[in-house]
């Protein structure tokens, strides 16, 4: 097994030359970044997490995927446009068995009463209604 290859480094005397200032600064920044990166998650990542392998569960069926949410998601205002779309999708979902009301109950009751009143009025004969007589043979 071969060891980890290190990037060849320029000698300090070359880096101290005037035309190499930018390169020296860049190399110093890269070194700081790599040190910061290691310490950034050191308190979160445990040795067990580093050495773990094969943390996968396989399922033969797709049943577990049926009720998963599709598409892009956003939480806590990170992407307001996506959250607005998520709200619209929630409003579209109507529970089965219930219907949305197009007309409020009170307006519907008034219309129904007016309809019944007109129907009753037309069923009573008036002096202008013509009565059809059946022809007898």
Textual characterization of the structure:
The longest helix has 20 residues. The model has no long low-confidence stretch (mean pLDDT 75). The chain is elongated and about 130 Å long. Among the domains are: 34 residues, no CATH class; 28 residues, no CATH class. With 137 residues, the chain is mainly alpha-helical. The chain starts with 11 loop residues before the first helix and ends in a 14-residue tail after the last helix. 45% of the residues lie in helices and 0% in strands.
Question: What key phrases describe this protein's structure?
Answer:
137 residues, mainly alpha, MPP6
What's the topology here?
Layout: H1 12-15, H2 21-40, H3 47-51, H4 80-92, H5 105-123
Which percent bin holds the helix content? Answer: 40-55%
Mean pLDDT: 75
Number of helices: 5
Cα distance spanning the termini:
117 Å
Overall 3D geometry?
elongated
Number of strands: 0
Instruction: Write the H/E string, N to C.
Output: HHHHH
β-strand amount: under 5%
**Poorly predicted residue ranges:** none
Largest sheet: none
Q: Structural class of the secondary structure composition?
A: mainly alpha
Rg (CA only): 40 Å
Compact description:
It is built from five helices and no strands.
């Amino acid at each position: 097994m071969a060891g980890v290859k290190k990037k060849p480094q320029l000698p300090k005397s070359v880096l101290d030359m005037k035309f190499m200032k930018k390169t020296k600064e860049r190399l110093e920044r890269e070194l700081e970044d790599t040190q910061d990166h290691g310490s950034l998650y050191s308190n979160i990542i445990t040795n067990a997490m580093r050495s773990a392998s094969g943390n996968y569960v396989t399922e033969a069926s797709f049943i577990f995927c049926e009720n998963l949410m599709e598409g892009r998601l956003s939480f806590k205002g990170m992407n307001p446009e996506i959250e607005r779309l998520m709200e619209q999708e929630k409003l579209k979902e109507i529970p089965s068995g219930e219907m949305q009301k197009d007309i409020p109950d009170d307006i519907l009751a008034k219309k129904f009463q007016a309809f019944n009143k007109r129907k009753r009025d037309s069923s009573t004969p008036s002096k202008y209604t013509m009565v059809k007589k059946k022809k007898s043979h």
